[in-house]
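Something for you to look into today, if you have time. I want to see for myself how the chain folds. Leave the record below and I will have a look.
***
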Amino acid sequence: MSRKKKSFTDLLEGSSYRWPKKGDRLLRSASDWDRAVEFSGDEIARHVHIWNGYLRAGAALIDACEEDPHDRHFLVYPILFNYRHGLELAMKWIILRYGRSAGVSAEEIAHHGLWKLWQLARKTIVSIGGEDDALPVVEQITKDFHELDQNALAFRYSQDRNGALIALPDTMIDLQNLREVMEAVGNFFDGADGQLDDLISAAGF
């Protein structure tokens, strides 16, 4: 006598293992202000939320690794991707908001190349706000990221477009140092944004 095969749902009945169930939808509406979230309808606010969100996500994932050290082997990739993307958006913000006053065109940023973006962001910052001791430090960190991942692929995929394993460093990485360094980079761009906004507003542009 043949027995009816059990489905995954049957096998998981009574366990805490979450399985897709009828009625599941991606974006369910909610009314709890303390737990729900909504997308910003303002272009400027949304860019800032995304930029800061990716940087914060990198830090939050490092916190998760502290709670469960085994997770670091899985989370190092999204950690670095979040930081890389946050850095990219920070530079694009500076260029989009203030580049025109420095002779930089917004049309020059339609790519993911960190090094090219840094050249434009640095030109914008220096042209309007002048030199700063932090500039060469942020430049080196941007160069480090660029050399790690020139095309925004290395932390999202294991292989390149030709099917070859993407080369990454074979040394151990200090995640806490990564967090501290990227926190400082985030603060730099926050400060640059505030300074450039004040200077341009004062100049009446």
Remarks:
- Helices lie at 8-12, 43-67, 72-98, 114-129, 135-148, 175-203.
- DSSP finds six helices and no strands in the chain.
